[in-house]
Structures are given as structure tokens and as C-alpha cells.
Design brief:
single chain, 195 residues, alpha+beta, 31% strand, 4 helices, 6-stranded mixed sheet, 11 strands
Length: 195
């Protein structure tokens, strides 16, 4: 895992971009489900260990503690990992009083809006937590979802990341498709590039 992180850090330096990526991290005898911010300088700028672990994750990972924002290019970046999106009160308590400008939400979830898929779940109820978090913090919420993973190869309607900005209509990436989204925070505009 460290070799992959080092490779990404080197790539960030060569391309002069910041990279955020999920990875296993180790500290003493603990293994964490972490989200990393690798800076364009080629170093680890920040990391967040998942606190809200699922039952299956608890078999492997240690629970992280605390959550804080990271200031990047004048913007405070917050991270809520996967199912932690449902722990709004906890997140607000952790980052208060300095609410983030942007919240990154990495995870592996079904695509939104679910009304565009054949999924029978209640997409209105499922969309409440992300919207509530964006509204409560007045932050742009950027979901980083992916359409393919090794643990659920046959699942459908995965990916479809969403971007929420208070006072604007949500933007969506396509489901079941590997692509890159280029988001303009000022114009709330999303371009999609196939890869």
C-alpha cells in the first residue's frame, strides 16, 4: 500500500496537482480505512481515518477519532467518509465552529438520483442526508463515488457521483461509467470527460 501511495504522491508532484485518494493506512498495530490528501509538492498534506465503520469494516479496521478540516488554497476542505454521511450531528460537532467550504464524500454507493435507475429504493429519502449536510454547513458537497469495485463486481447502477451546492440544482456524473468530472465551483458547472 505504501508503494501505491508513494507512486501517487510522485504523480501529484510531476503533474502539479493535489490528489485525494482512499487507502489502507497503518499506525502501530492498527489498520485504518483512510482518505488521504497528497499535495502537488509530492507530500502527504492530510489524512482522515474513518470513524463511522460498518459492522464488516470493524472486523478489519480500527476506528478513527476526530475530524477536522484542511485549508487548501484558501478553502477549508472537510471529509465525510461513506456511511458517515448519516452522522451529520457528529460531523458538525467535530468541525464546528469552522465549517468547511467544500466537503468531499468518498464512498461506494448506488448512483443518485435513484429515480434515473431501476432501483426501487426511495431516492428522496436517500438524498436527505447529503442535502442536509450541504445546507447545514453552506458547503459544496462533492461525492466521489466509483462505478466499479472488486468487492461487488456484478452490482449495477453504481457510481453516479453528485455535487450539491446550496441554492442550486444537484449535478450528477453518469452511473456505471468510468469518467472524469471537471467541476467549476464558481459557476456550479460540471464537465464530463470519458476515459
Amino acid at each position: 500500500t505504501q508503494q501505491a501511495i508513494d507512486f501517487l504522491a510522485s504523480s501529484a508532484y510531476q503533474a502539479r496537482v493535489n490528489i485525494m485518494v482512499g487507502a489502507l493506512t497503518y499506525c502501530d498495530d492498527a489498520i485504518y480505512n483512510s482518505y488521504l490528501l497528497l499535495g502537488h509538492c509530492g507530500t502527504l498534506l492530510s489524512h482522515w481515518h474513518k470513524v463511522g465503520l460498518t459492522a464488516s469494516e470493524r472486523r478489519i479496521f480500527s476506528e478513527g477519532s476526530g475530524r477536522s478540516n484542511y485549508s487548501l488554497n484558501g478553502l477549508d476542505i472537510g471529509v465525510v467518509i461513506c456511511r458517515e454521511i448519516d452522522d451529520i450531528d457528529w460531523f458538525l460537532n467535530e468541525v464546528s465552529p469552522d465549517m468547511p467550504d467544500i466537503i468531499i464524500w468518498p464512498g461506494y454507493m448506488e448512483a443518485a438520483p435513484r429515480s434515473l435507475s431501476s432501483c426501487k429504493r426511495n431516492h428522496v429519502a436517500d438524498a436527505k442526508a447529503p442535502k442536509a449536510l450541504s445546507d447545514a454547513t453552506n458547503a459544496i458537497l462533492i461525492q466521489c463515488n466509483w462505478p466499479h469495485a472488486l468487492n461487488f463486481i456484478g452490482d449495477k447502477d453504481m457510481g453516479g457521483s453528485q455535487i450539491l451546492k446550496p441554492g442550486h440544482a444537484p449535478l450528477y456524473m453518469p452511473a456505471n461509467k468510468v469518467c472524469i468530472g471537471i467541476y467549476d465551483t464558481l459557476e456550479h458547472d460540471l464537465g464530463v470527460v470519458d476515459i
